[in-house]
Amino acid sequence: MRPMTKEATATRVELGELLPLMEEFYTIQGEGYHTGTPAYFIRVGGCDVGCHWCDVKESWDAAIHPPTEAAAIVANAKKYSKTIVITGGEPLMWDMNHLTSMLKAEGLQVHIETSGAYELSGHWDWICLSPKKRMLPKPRIYEEAHELKVIIYNKSDFAFAEEHAAKVNGNCQLFLQPEWSVREKMTPLIVDYVMANPKWKVSLQTHKYLNIP
Ligand code: SF4
């Protein structure tokens, strides 16, 4: 088979038929509503949100992650788990319709972890919205989100969390999660906050305590 031209590759990336795949792995969901349940993670490269505490900065540059056939990603994923989590990077930088249609056609549960900074595409069973101050979510996702997970890095993030809780739909589950590098300082504040404001729940990065990816 002839190698694809740069233009043909770019067109297929635009359509979501190829995605810059950074890594994929079978593990335990460590955060939020589905904590403790097995899932196959697909990490798509590319993010320009620029959180200074980001723990996957190597995902930011999409160009270093190989454009990978969505069909090949699906063929691999379905061998491992009934639950697939698409994460990044920021997966909504890419058109997710193609990949998620194929995953759904296989009868899989399809979840996303997103900042919401780009327009929502794709077919999702679970949307975890984790808004970031540097690029706020697009309006539509507040109606669609099943889970709002706000990362607490400093005290002002509690007010940020409330701003976003006021925008999500009434069924959305609310989580506060300490940023890993400041967890010792922020976790006690989150515990107090959740006891005083019980609409929230605590989320911890349990995969890091378990020493798994
Ligand atoms: S949105 Fe996520 S991947 Fe992007 S910089 Fe922030 S934490 Fe990192």
Automatic annotation (TrEMBL):
InterPro entries given in the database record: 7-CO-7-deazaguanine_synth-like, Aldolase_TIM, rSAM, rSAM_sf
Cofactor(s) needed: Mg(2+); [4Fe-4S] cluster; S-adenosyl-L-methionine
One function term, GO molecular function aspect: S-adenosyl-L-methionine binding
Its EC number(s): 4.3.99.3
Keywords: 4Fe-4S, Iron, Iron-sulfur, Lyase, Magnesium, Metal-binding, Queuosine biosynthesis, S-adenosyl-L-methionine
GO biological process: tRNA queuosine(34) biosynthetic process
Cofactor binding note of this UniProt entry: Binds 1 [4Fe-4S] cluster. The cluster is coordinated with 3 cysteines and an exchangeable S-adenosyl-L-methionine. Binds 1 S-adenosyl-L-methionine per subunit.
Annotated substrate binding sites: I28, Q29, G30, R43, T87, P213
Family matches, as Pfam families: Radical_SAM
Gene3D superfamilies: Aldolase class I
Domain Radical SAM core: 34-213
Positions with a binding annotation for [4Fe-4S] cluster: C47, C51, C54
UniProt xrefs under PROSITE patterns: RADICAL_SAM
Family: Belongs to the radical SAM superfamily. 7-carboxy-7-deazaguanine synthase family.
Role: Catalyzes the complex heterocyclic radical-mediated conversion of 6-carboxy-5,6,7,8-tetrahydropterin (CPH4) to 7-carboxy-7-deazaguanine (CDG), a step common to the biosynthetic pathways of all 7-deazapurine-containing compounds.
Subunit (UniProt): Homodimer.
Protein name, UniProt field: 7-carboxy-7-deazaguanine synthase
Name of the coding gene: queE
